From TrEMBL, chain A:
It comes from the Bacteria. It comes from Nocardioides bigeumensis. InterPro entries: Bact_solute-bind_prot3 (IPR051455), Solute-binding_3/MltF_N (IPR001638). Residues 64-285 form the Solute-binding protein family 3/N-terminal domain. This is Glutamate ABC transporter substrate-binding protein.
From TrEMBL, chain B:
It is found in: Cell membrane. Its main location: membrane. Keywords: Amino-acid transport, Cell membrane, Membrane, Transmembrane, Transmembrane helix, Transport. It is a multi-pass membrane protein. Residues 15-208 form the ABC transmembrane type-1 domain. This is Amino acid ABC transporter permease. The keyword Electron transport does not apply. Belongs to the binding-protein-dependent transport system permease family. HisMQ subfamily.
Amino acid sequence: MRLHTRFHRTAALVAGLGLALSGLAACGDAGDGDAETVDVEVEEDAADAFDDGTRMKELAESGEITIGVKFDQPGIGFKGATDDMPTGIDPEIGKILAASLGIAPEDITWKETISDNREPYLIDGEVDLVLASYSITPERREVVGQAGPYYVTGQQLLVASDSDIDSLDDVKGTEVCSVTGSTSLENIEAEGAEPRGFDTYSECVDQVLSGAVDAMTTDGAILLGYAAENPDELKVVVDPFSEERYGVGYSLDHPEMCQWIVDTLTEAQDGDAYDAAFEATLGQSGVDTPEAPEMDACPE
Amino acid sequence: MDDVFSSFDLVLRAFWLTLQLLVLSGVASLLLGTLLAALRVGPVKVLNRLGTLYVSVVRNTPLLVMFIFVFIASPTLDLFVGTPFLVKGVIALTIYTSAFVCEAVRSGINSVSLGQAEAARAIGLTFGGTMREVILPQAFRATVPPLASVLIALAKNTSVAAAFGLMEATARMRFFTNNNANDRVLIFLTFAIGYIIIVEVMSAGAYSFERRWRVAR
């Protein structure tokens, strides 16, 4: 018994050493890979900024970043129950931003944010960045920073393939579902439809499929994802009737992050990182890669 | 915050829907719950078991699961497809609340001494007559405080409907907080006050019932 214990201890020690070594090796690899341009950029920003330690430098030094994304929007930000990492355009943009700090995708902590807790999470420092189909609005910019937009989309309708709804005028008096408290629901209510709010988009799609509501509405990109999953039963109709400009949320405690986000994303748009991120996610549902949107200037 | 007050009719409409949910499912729960309590205390063994089964299944299921059953699961079985959303909400709330009403009423019935029932039987009343004329009038008196608690819980439980297509107060609150991130706390307070008013009115009503019936004893 005693011998047994000792053997185990030795084995554990060896295994631990091995792990530590392989961990070191892994770090070395990551450093050699995509981090070379990154460190330089961080240094530059740190020199430019007034405060000695900028947030970017802190993050780059810690080698960790926490990013808030949606887990329930296919193509935008989606994580199934058994997935390790979220997929979609938002996480892809997050990876580009993290890479510019020398942080590998594996070292990013993804946190699910819902529409209601995006500002509190940023203000409390629960997350460093929010990329969660986060439309830029003046009200939100009063409490948090929003850099971007990195993607512009518009609201459309998802209906059963045999539905009569063909134009926006047809929704008057019908029941249209979306996520409770979302801007999409507000817009469709303004069009004269009876708003039906649900907790998640998937529940809402079920309502359309079962015929309990007449249509579902939200950003076209999300709807196309669902229509692609059920091409026989569902179709997307109506030209986009709103403009949602997705931005990157950051805390106003660290205003220097804005310029870094804009610079990094501009660089990604000029190169092919942005197009690749789009094609791997939203592009899958048959949308053409859009012209990269012009980003707002940072405050000050 | 200006946004909330400039469209205050939306707030009032939302609380009106909350009240509709509360009153409709409150009345339905009182009826169904009293019926269930009668089953549980009645002389028929099969009905006893049925009432007990209902209470133990429903009372041990979260309300959210009840809503998911009515709104999300049932349509896939072709149930409740054309049913209006308000009715579906009332059904989910009634299924849930009636189990608690049943237990509150049963506790009231048990508080009436057995001698009362025996006396009623002795003068020739049937079981129904005994319940209606002798037991229930006394039982309801003892039932007022626990029933008030159940109905107050119901008033707040209506907020679960916010995630199931009903634009009641909580859903409307989330509509406002989405657009006014800077005024979140004030919006929460405004809607909290709405709920507090509803519950205070109910408490006051329960208290006046309690007082009136105490005098009658």
